[in-house]
Fold this protein.
Amino acid sequence: MPGVHISPFSGQWYPQRPAELTALLEEVFANSERRLGPWVLPRAAGFVVPHAGLMYSGTVAAAAYRHLREQPPARIVVLGFSHRMGHAGIAVPDIGSIETPLGEVPVDRGVVEKLCASPPFHLVAESRVCDHSVEIQLPLLQHAAANVPVTPLYVGHIDDAGRLDAARTLAELAAGGAVFLVSSDFTHYGPEFYYRPFPCDEFTPDRLRVLDSDAMENTGSLDAALFLEFLDETGATLCGRAPIALWLETVRLLAGEEIFQEALDYQTSGDILDDYRNSVSYAALGYFPAGAFELGAEDRDLLLASARNTLQRLCETSERQPVPPPRITPGLTRKAAVFVSLHQDGRLLGCVGTPGERLPLAQAVPEMTLAAALDDPRFPSVLGVEGEIRVEISVLSPMRKLRDASGFCVNRHGAYLRVGEHSSLLLPQVAAGRGWAAEQFLEALSRKAGLGPKAWQAPEARLSVFRAQVFA
């Protein structure tokens, strides 16, 4: 029978004593909730998580693991890789469990046996692949969802055909209730990593954020080929390119609802140490079905009350004073793009939103209500308008970058277009209200950006889609 592997990373990457390790885990989970609020999204398919020492990347990683704590899965598959050696295919270590200072993590031998019957998966001695990309996840997992069986996988060199074959097998596991943890840090910057695309100066933090945002935009495309092309074109130093590419291929094959990537948290070691000469970026990304982003009835009612009370106060006093929701639930602390539209007798009076700056919903809705009433340059202020004004709120899912417009579905998707300095957004209900076909929608999107009607076809155009929950 396969034996117990004792992880060699305790005492180096995290404390060796159980009490000290538990205290550190409690600290990073608490830090995560302070940074982000208490909200978590349901029904995660998987997460990209960092793998530095817990004192560095643990707070960012906890943004993903807090979701698992709320909804422990039936099983976990960890997609990691070996930093110290290359190998072909996907290596499955031949072990029965992995021991950390918090106890043993059971390896899902049934899944191991199933995988090893399907190339490019193959069984190897654990000593050949043991790496912190996988094993740094285990204490976090034990703290969030103890005793959930784990399948550790080390993704090596696979061609496109091998990646597709492996993704088909992994998609079957996802259908059976497995949740995936995909281990990768983001940009490795500085001479220590032989990557210095810009000098180290006061602009470095912002430049790193832009570089990592571009990388996350491409992981959010859920298009493995597009993601790998981005890495090749930019030289971006994401160490987990192989497991991420395999995960994106797997997501593409999942049946059921459309999946979107949510950026849960982001930080760099430069931020933590205030030293950017050599810096590693950490991101926690979650992958959720479109319905996971929808608000329940209580949260919708609270936001509508906030918007209506804000509008009423404005009309009665002419004062620009947002009125918060009567009560703040965890769901209303979530940061999301939101639009508020004001209508009267079928006529639009104003529509303003936050596509570029995501704020907590409890804050964004009353502020966007005031902006729609006063700041939409297409319409006069609503001050002085008599009669009832109808409030409509649209809460957007995250954006998903497209390779081309073939991935756009009219009446289902809204779209965001960027061409150079020009940008525009149209909500999905715009097409439904006018009976537009897809091309008409995209032409209107281009004109709204101040460009010709075919601008969405330009080689430099960047087109993203989203879903919207609309309620009034």
Observations:
- The longest strand covers residues 279-289.
- The domain at 4-293 is CATH 3.40.830.10 (Protocatechuate 4,5-dioxygenase; Chain B).
- The chain has a mean pLDDT of 96.
- The radius of gyration is 24 Å.
